[in-house]
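Exercise 3.2. Students should predict the tertiary structure of the chain below and write it as structure tokens, then compare their answer with the key that follows.

Predict this chain's 3D structure.
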Amino acid sequence: MASATPSEEDIVNRFDGCNNSPGCFEESRFESHIKQEYLCPVGKGVLNNPKKVPCCGQVFCHFCIKNSTPYIENDQGNNLQQQSLAIPNYQTLKCPLCRKEFEANKLDDVCLNFKTLLNELRIKCSFEECRKVILLENMLHHQFGCEWNPERKVSCTDCNKELPYSSLKDHFCNDRVLRKYADVEKKTQEIKHEANKQEKMLEELLE
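Answer key:
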């Protein structure tokens, strides 16, 4: 038996209180109290990539507004399940607050002043070991190169191949193997040379 399409109230409530929608930043990560205008009405966290709806002017996270209604209708009248931001711009969305419909391509950027004030909020790095607090606008750049980020890109000191830090210890480097082989071979030749030298000296003493 097919499951019933969730109601609009159920759709909005599935985000309520969780404060960990993929679209939002957790409010607890910020240094200061966050004004209501900087909180997403759907994801309940601090706005991430804010977009304004054309119907009532409310601001939502781009991810949250595009995923606030998990079922949309295509040209043939069939229900399609939304997947992340992969929603065609011609699809119709419905505002979770005023319930009016609008096309996805009608989502608008917030004004520069709003975005500037939002970006000036100070947020903790998401990696617990890192104690740095940075401006929101610099957060993604910081976390990409954060020393505690297991996926940050590093280069092998032997072959210069770029790979995630978490994979470095398991990285099989041909250059490193060849270099170690060359070092062992060199050491072996030195030992042989010294052995021949000692053998020759012994022969001279026995003559």
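Discussion points: Residues 17-71+89-149 form a domain with the Herpes Virus-1 fold (CATH 3.30.40.10). The first strand starts at residue 50 and ends at 52.
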